C-alpha cells in the first residue's frame, strides 16, 4: 500500500489518521497501542514491543538449549 497521509494538528502535537486497512494489517483497532520504531530511512509501525520480541527470542533459545535442566527444575 502506498497512500499519502496528511499530517494534522492535534493540540500542541501533530498526528496522522491511519486507514482501516493499516489497522487491520497490524491487528489493532481504535484505542489500542502500537509502537513506532525510528529507522535510518524513516519509521516503522509495529503491533508489538520490539524489545519484548527480542527478549522472548533470546529466552526461547535458552529454553531450547536447557530443556532437560528446566524439566528437572520443574519437578
From TrEMBL:
What InterPro entries has UniProt attached to this entry? Answer: Doc_partner (IPR013432), SpoVT-AbrB_dom (IPR007159), SpoVT-AbrB_sf (IPR037914)
Q: Among its keywords, does the record have Disulfide bond?
A: no
In the UniProt record, does the keyword DNA-binding occur? yes
Which SUPFAM superfamilies does its entry note? Answer: AbrB/MazE/MraZ-like (SSF89447)
Keywords per UniProt: DNA-binding
Residues covered by the SpoVT-AbrB domain: 8-53
Q: What is this protein called?
A: AbrB/MazE/SpoVT family DNA-binding domain-containing protein
Amino acid at each position: 500500500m502506498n497512500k499519502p497521509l496528511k499530517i494534522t494538528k492535534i493540540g500542541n502535537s501533530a498526528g496522522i489518521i491511519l486507514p482501516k486497512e493499516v489497522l487491520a494489517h497490524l491487528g489493532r483497532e481504535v484505542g489500542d497501542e502500537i509502537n513506532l520504531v525510528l529507522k535510518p530511512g524513516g519509521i516503522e509501525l509495529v503491533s508489538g514491543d520490539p524489545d519484548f520480541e527480542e527478549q522472548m527470542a533470546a529466552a526461547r533459545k535458552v529454553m531450547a538449549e536447557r530443556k532437560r535442566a528446566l524439566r528437572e527444575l520443574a519437578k
